[in-house]
Amino acid sequence: MRTDAITSQTTGSIIGFPGWAHYGASNTGQQGCMSSAALECERDGVTINAVVPGNLLADGLRAQGEDYLRTMAASNGND
To answer: Please, where are the H alpha helices in 11-65?
Structure first.
């Protein structure tokens, strides 16, 4: 029997953002948990993948303001 598990993560564990250390830390923990689970479950035929879609310019992110968006873009190398 083959089983697949997929989880969605954010880039918070890869790229830091000013004022969001807590968010990056929690995402890094989730990424480590998924990586360990993938290694542990592999022998049982379970495939675990984490999808990291990147940032979405949605209302919540826009609400942070233009200065924040510029800082975020610069930290991503998109300035």
So the answer is: 21-41, 59-62
Dump pLDDT digits (tens) for 47-62. Answer: 888 777 767 788 888 8
Please state the φ and ψ torsions of residue 43, each to the nearest 5 degrees.
-65, -20
Cα dihedral sign, 19-14-7-38? negative
Q: How many CB atoms lie within 10 A of CB 39?
A: 10
Q: Which two tokens stand for residue 58?
A: 């949605």
* Residue 4: φ, ψ to 5°: -120, 140
CA pair distance 12, 55, nearest whole angstrom? 9
pTM above 0.70, yes or no: no
Specify the amino acid at residue 7: T
Residue count of the chain, please give it: 79
